[in-house]
Each structure stands twice: as C-alpha cells, then as structure tokens.
TrEMBL record:
One of its GO terms (molecular function) is cytoskeletal motor activity. Residues 298-367 form the Flagellar motor switch protein FliN-like C-terminal domain. This is Flagellar motor switch protein FliM. GO terms for biological process: bacterial-type flagellum-dependent swarming motility; positive chemotaxis. It is a peripheral membrane protein. Its main location: membrane. GO terms for cellular component: bacterial-type flagellum basal body; plasma membrane. FliM is one of three proteins (FliG, FliN, FliM) that forms the rotor-mounted switch complex (C ring), located at the base of the basal body. This complex interacts with the CheY and CheZ chemotaxis proteins, in addition to contacting components of the motor that determine the direction of flagellar rotation. It comes from the Bacteria. Keywords: Bacterial flagellum, Cell inner membrane, Cell membrane, Cell projection, Chemotaxis, Cilium, Flagellar rotation, Flagellum, Membrane. Residues 1-10 have a biased composition (Acidic residues). It comes from Microbaculum marinisediminis. It is found in: Cell inner membrane; Bacterial flagellum basal body.
Amino acid sequence: MADEEEDVDQDALAAQWGAELTDEDDDASDDDIAAKWASMVEDEEPDTGTGGGTERVLNQDEIDSLLGFNGDAANRDEKSGIRSIINSTIVSYERLPMLEIIFDRLVRLLTTSLRNFTSDNVEVALDSLSSVRFGDYLNSIPLPAILAVFKAEEWDNYGLVTVGSNLIYSMVDVLLGGGRGSMRLRIEGRPYTTIEMNLIRRMIELVLADADQAFAPLSPVHFNVERLETNPRFAAIARPANAAILVKLRIDMEDRGGNIEVLLPYATIEPIRDMLLQMFMGEKFGRDPIWEGHLASEMWNSTVEIDAVLFEQSMPLDRVMNFKVGDTLVLDRRTTDPVTLRCGETILTDGKAGRVGDRVAVRIANRLRRPKMTYAAFEKADRLAVEGT
C-alpha cells in the first residue's frame, strides 16, 4: 500500500507541474519549458551537504593555471602546473648564443667538404639546436645507428656523433657507386660490416675536422675519434642527468640522405663558456676593424697636458698663509737634477731642463714608465673606495 501511495503522490506531483507549466507558458518554447523543468528539479533536490548537491565547475582561467598556460606576457617565462613538470627535464641553451654562429659556420664548411668527399650534390641544413638530458637522448636514439665517441683534446672531455641508418646506407651507396633512386631497406638485427664501419668513420672524421675549423676563431681545439659503437650503452660519456647540447644536421644527396647528430655535454664546453656567453654579429668574433680604426685615429689626434715638475715640498698651512711679497723659497735642487714629466697624477718619465732660444725646454732622458696600476687593480681600488664611503 505504501508503494501504491508513493506512486500516486509522484503521479499527482507530475500532473500538478504539468498543469502549472501549461497555464503559465502556453506560448513558451520547448527550450524554456526544459529550463524551467530543470530549475524545479534542482529546487526539489535535498541538500546533501556538498554545496547544494552540485559540483563546482572550473572556469577557463583556472584550467589554464592548472595546465600551466598563462597568456600574460609578463609571466610567459614562468612555468607552473603540469607544464612545469613537463619542462623539468628541458635545459635552456639560450645563455650560449655563440653556438648558433659556430654551427652555422659548420654547416657551410660541411657542405663543401661532403661535396668533395662524395663527388655528388650534397646539401647540409641545421635542423635544430636544443638542450637535452644525456640519459634521455641515449634512450631516444633509433636503432640501428653508429655512435662515434670523440675527445676534445684541448678541453680534455668527450662528445658524441650519431649517424642514422638512412644516412649510413645512403653514404655507402654513394661511395660505392650505387644507383640513384634505389632506397636501401633497413635490416633489423644485422650488424654493420667492416666496409660500412670504415666508410662511416671517414665521414665522421671529416665532420669533426670541419668542427675544428668552426671552433678555431673562438678557441683552437682538435676532435679525435676514440671509438665507434652500435650500442648506446657503450657510448656513455656522461651521467644520465647531465645536460648537453644536441645539434641535428640534415644531409640530403638528391633523393637520398639522412640525419647526423652532434652531442656536446655542458662539461665539455665549460672551458670556453665565457666566450660562448658573448653575442657577436657575423663572423668577426668580437673584432670590429671600423671601430678599431676610428678609436686609434681619435687617440692619436687627442691632446693631453703634461706638467714639468721641478720640485715639490710639503709645508704647514699657517706658513703658506703667512707668505709675503719678497719672501724667498729655497728649492733643494741643482741645475743638473732631472725634471719629472707628469700627466695628471701619473709620472711619465724624467728629463733635463734647458733653453731653446727664448723658451725653456725639457729634454727626455729616459723611456716612458709603465703604469703600476693595472685595470684589475683599478677596479679593486674603486670598489674599495665605494665600500668605504
């Protein structure tokens, strides 16, 4: 009976709602009726203690903040949320702007060298220049591949060159007279032959020789191939968490080619870090002949005032204040004593006083003295003076 009464109550309630909607909104649309039904149902729902029985919905700003996407230009460099977790393994290389100039120069040198090496039309392009973790890079190398471990002699550290399988087979076909348009299939599990290893070793040595020339204007260095590996586990030259610079080069030989990658750990380029921090335009590497010539000409045309000091003496101030006309100052000098030539507070050299016609002259007796105050000592003295004030 209770169930029947409950069914009757539900039917009566539904009939009442329907009658009210019919009376009030005869001309209303279906969307308005549906909206009113939804509002009535929400009013009839009991309070469950969780905010009226409804769940809180995030707005677009809260979603962007959670994902770490912020359109504010001021906070564009600041990462938060899920984005900060994703970018935790990424290392910025922008603090070494000279690397782009060096590897652009390497691309130009390598284009000419590979054309002479293969006697074919070779185009080399710089795909990307990024920073990675060494362990992540080893795990991402597509196999089979040849990895060359090289040593930078002057920097006393190691680097890595990775040659992809497509470039290996393309280079072997070109060097051994393979036909054009014949795409060599990659055979999984087959080790590279001795001929293939030797040919790729010669190509890697050519790449490293051009890298020597690319780094030469900045810092003389010589890269030597230590060994070739086909298993990335045997090419571990740094810890997995160490940061490294990854340079991807694309080599195209008409309808064939592949990729070659150069990996330089940050520890390897640490000896020239100060040089890589500089920002120079073009390939002048910090030298501007126009500015040097202008500076030299202006220095030669500049004028300075030189004082010829015969004698210096310290005396009390009260005696100076009591000077009278006719007083005689005794100078403890002889006519043969040298005269000091001074520019400001800097002593330049010594000379002898004399006469040329009606003018008093000084003949230079010694060479110019080198200033004892170096630039580093000048900065230190200036810093101490600032701290003392």
